[in-house]
Amino acid sequence: PYTTLFRSVFKTNSKSTMTITLANPRDNVTLGEVKAAAAKMIPVLVTSAGADVTDLEKATVITTSEEELA
Q1: Cβ(13)–Cβ(54) under 8 Å?
Q2: What pLDDT score was predicted for residue 2?
Q3: In what order do the strands lie in the sheet containing 53-65?
Q4: pLDDT in tens, 10-66
Q5: What angle do CA 16, 18, 62 make, to 5 degrees?
Q6: Cα–Cα distance, 39 to 48 (Å, whole number)
Q7: Residue/partner pairs of 41-48 with CB below 8 Å, 24 or more apart
Q8: d(CA 12, CA 68)
Q9: Using alpha carbons only, how large is the chain's radius of gyration in Å?
Q10: Distance between CA 67 and CA 5 in Å, rounded?
Q11: 58 Cβ partners below 8 Å, 6+ apart?
């Protein structure tokens, strides 16, 4: 069995980052779709320290597998 995660990292106005991770993303997500969604989210995102999110830094799909040892 394997797990797939979508991770987006955003820049903030305090030189920190904010990461959002979602499980089981759609297989054919494109960078263009991610950028369009990020543009809608950025105006309402604030870090726990109060920093405003300013830009999408990167987006990644992470696939991991797990195998139990017998």
Answers
A1: yes
A2: 85
A3: 17-23, 2-12, 53-65
A4: 999 999 999 999 999 999 999 999 999 999 999 999 999 999 999 999 999 999 999
A5: 125
A6: 20
A7: 42/10, 45/10, 45/18, 47/12, 47/14, 47/16, 47/18
A8: 40
A9: 15
A10: 18
A11: 8, 9
